Description:
The protein is an all-alpha fold and 109 residues long. The protein has helices spanning 2-91, 96-107. The chain is 94% helix and 0% strand. α1 (2-91) packs antiparallel against α2.
Amino acid sequence: KISxxxxxxxxxxxxxxxxxLRKTLKESKDQVEKNRRGIADNKRTQRRYKEQCSSAEKVxxxxxxxxxxxxxxxxxxxxxxxxLNLLNxxxxxxxxxxxxxxxxxxxxx
Length: 109
């Protein structure tokens, strides 16, 4: 009887330990799944961030190119104004086509 009682106690202890281990295993599996989803979310976030950075770089590059073109245009515009003023002064302002051309360039945006 004593050995049967000890065996039953040991069996109950093993059954309870088994339940605890199964619960721990399920919690571990759930945590692994949660971590896997978290990693996938992080990868998606990283891709979006890289895409946004890439887009921001492209916008910045285009803005720089636009500013450079504006500077070049303004430089050319001022050179043309000087040349046209020289032409006007050389011709004494009597050539109406040169005068008209000067006013067209100086009034353009």
